[in-house]
Amino acid sequence: MPVQIAVVIPSYKVINHILGVIDGMGSDIHRIYVVDDCCPMNSGDFVEANCTDPRVVVLRHVENQGVGGAVMTGYRAAIEDGIDIIVKVDGDGQMDPALIPSFVSPIIAGEADYTKGNRFFDLERIAQMPKLRLFGNAGLSFLTKLSSGYWDLFDPTNGFTAIHRDVARHLPMGRISKRYFFETDMLFRLSTLRAVVLDVPMHAKYGDEVSNLKISQVLSEFLFKNLRNFGKRVFYNYYLRNLSLASFELPAGLALLLFGMIYGLQHWLTSIGTGQVASSGTVMLAAMPILLGVQLLLAFFGQDIAATPRHAVHPRLRWSALEVGNA
């Protein structure tokens, strides 16, 4: 039986580009879900009035839910329709639909559960990216690596993605962030499933589209949410599900580092106030915990990087579902 592929297109203020995006879909796409996220331009009505492609299904939100809410609506519809692989493409024309086979082939081959675009693979083309967007993506990329544990990914906030149905249906869709933190939160949720995520090289096209994402407005929100997800990931992976050497390295490293810094700062301030130079023993008692703490933290992150998932889970999830159905 051929693999069924669907595309989800969140639609919000993209009527200038969305018909071109739909026209670019190849014959291997079985269904196209256009999710009108309570668009003030009535993009759902616009697509229905101007698009004759029989594969297109328009879904509507009565309230704006953000890109994450729109994608989850598309995921649910695709799962209900028995779609095997669900691709998410933005409606602003920046993502080339001709690349979809490159996104779905690793999933079909069992090499990945989730694929995402990477705009940073070609250094010559990076110069074409707007400088503010490039700087913002670099900072957000590091935070996402920290919170998700996918240290070998680049451009983790990229929205051109594909996912296998059996992984998508295990996602806690009601708890995934619905707005601009969506792509980052998806990676965190996938890491809790031990899903394999793979980069796919791509080029973005920047034209007259207007981005609704303002880096300055979301920076503090992304910082807080990424740190929160990092704490949750560490608890899930290193204490709730499993105990390893890394489970002891992290708290010991933090304790030693904090002790050394607080002890050293206290005696440094005392020395300034009294004019007396701290003894060599006092200096060593502050420096040694700091050095040991840094070494333990580096060891923890080394093991965390090595623990990146390498084996796709969707074949096991599929067989597990079959066994439950046959029980």
Q: Layout of SSEs?
A:
Blueprint: E1 5-11, H1 18-23, E2 31-36, H2 43-50, E3 56-60, H3 66-80, E4 85-88, H4 100-108, E5 114-118, H5 123-126, H6 131-148, E6 161-164, H7 165-168, H8 182-192, E7 197-201, H9 215-240, H10 245-274, H11 280-306, H12 314-326
Parallel strand pairs: 1-2, 1-4, 2-3, 5-7
Antiparallel strand pairs: 4-6, 5-6
Helix pairs in contact: 6-9, 8-9, 10-11
Enumerate the strands of the largest sheet in spatial order, edge to edge or round the barrel: 3-2-1-4-6-5-7
- Mean pLDDT, nearest integer? 88
Name of the CATH class of the largest domain: Alpha Beta
Q: How many domains in all?
A: 2
Radius of gyration: 24 Å
- The helix fraction, in percent, is 40-55%
Q: Largest sheet, if any?
A: 7 strands, mixed
Distance between the termini: 24 Å
Features:
single chain, 327 residues, Spore Coat Polysaccharide Biosynthesis Protein SpsA, Chain A, 2 domains, 7 strands, disordered C terminus
